[in-house]
């Protein structure tokens, strides 16, 4: 069983902002995998399905970004999901728009949503896909909560598509295989 978590903020005003890259990837992947994310549980929206003969849970925490770990901890605890079967997807200012990076573990790199997950699960050994949004050109909070610029949109869309493809490779062939292909 895999748990794939996309980080973002709930609500119409945050849709498709830089900080909601995780939600955008989950939405695209759920459409492709035909998994409805239609149940509110574990402080988030949850969907369950099968992808390449693997049980997969998709989670979009509704706790707002900085408390994402509460939602993740609840579903992990309820289903007894091992850390090695969790994948978290989120935005990263250290990467250029359009780039993605897969990591097996490590620090949050200053991302408060990822840090809250690390704190709630008491481990940095959490697989992740980071979506590049680029360095802020104005106030950091305003930057991450705004939509990408028109010239960035095609790059962001490509990164979202690459993250979806990476998820398919992870489920079918493992995380190392996806890292070799997408890093």
Secondary-structure-based class equals: alpha/beta
Name the strands of the widest sheet in spatial order: 2-3-4-1-5-7-6
> pLDDT under 50 segments (min length 5)?
none
> How many structural domains in the coordinates?
1
Our count of helices gives: 6
**CATH fold topology:** Rossmann fold
Largest sheet: 7 strands, mixed
Total beta-strand segments = 7
Overview of this structure, please?
By secondary structure, the protein is of the alpha/beta class. The protein has a single domain, classed as 3-Layer(aba) Sandwich (Rossmann fold). It is built from six helices and seven strands; from the N terminus they run βαβββαββαβααα. It has helices at residues 21-33, 68-79, 112-121, 140-144, 153-173, 175-182, and strands spanning 2-6, 39-41, 44-51, 54-61, 86-92, 100-103, 127-132. The chain has a seven-stranded mixed beta sheet, with helices on both faces. α1 packs across α5 (153-173), α2 (68-79) runs parallel beside α3 (112-121) and α5 runs antiparallel to α6. It is globular and about 40 Å long. The mean pLDDT is 97.
């Amino acid at each position: 069983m895999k748990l794939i978590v996309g980080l973002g903020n709930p609500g119409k005003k945050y849709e498709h902002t830089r900080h909601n890259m995780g939600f955008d990837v989950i939405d695209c992947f759920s459409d492709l995998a035909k998994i409805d994310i239609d149940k509110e549980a574990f402080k988030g929206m949850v969907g369950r399905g099968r992808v390449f003969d693997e049980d997969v849970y998709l989670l979009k925490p509704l706790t707002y970004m900085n408390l994402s770990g509460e939602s993740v901890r609840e579903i992990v605890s309820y289903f007894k999901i091992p850390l090695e079967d969790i994948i978290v997807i989120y935005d990263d200012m250290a990467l250029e728009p359009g780039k993605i990076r897969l990591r097996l573990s490590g620090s949050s790199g200053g991302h408060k949503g990822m840090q809250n997950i690390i704190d709630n699960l008491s481990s940095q050994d959490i697989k992740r896909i980071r979506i590049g949004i680029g360095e802020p050109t104005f106030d950091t909070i305003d930057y991450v909560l705004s939509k990408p610029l028109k010239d960035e949109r095609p790059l962001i869309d490509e990164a979202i598509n690459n993250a979806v493809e990476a998820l398919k490779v992870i489920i079918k062939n493992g995380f190392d295989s996806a890292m070799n292909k997408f890093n």
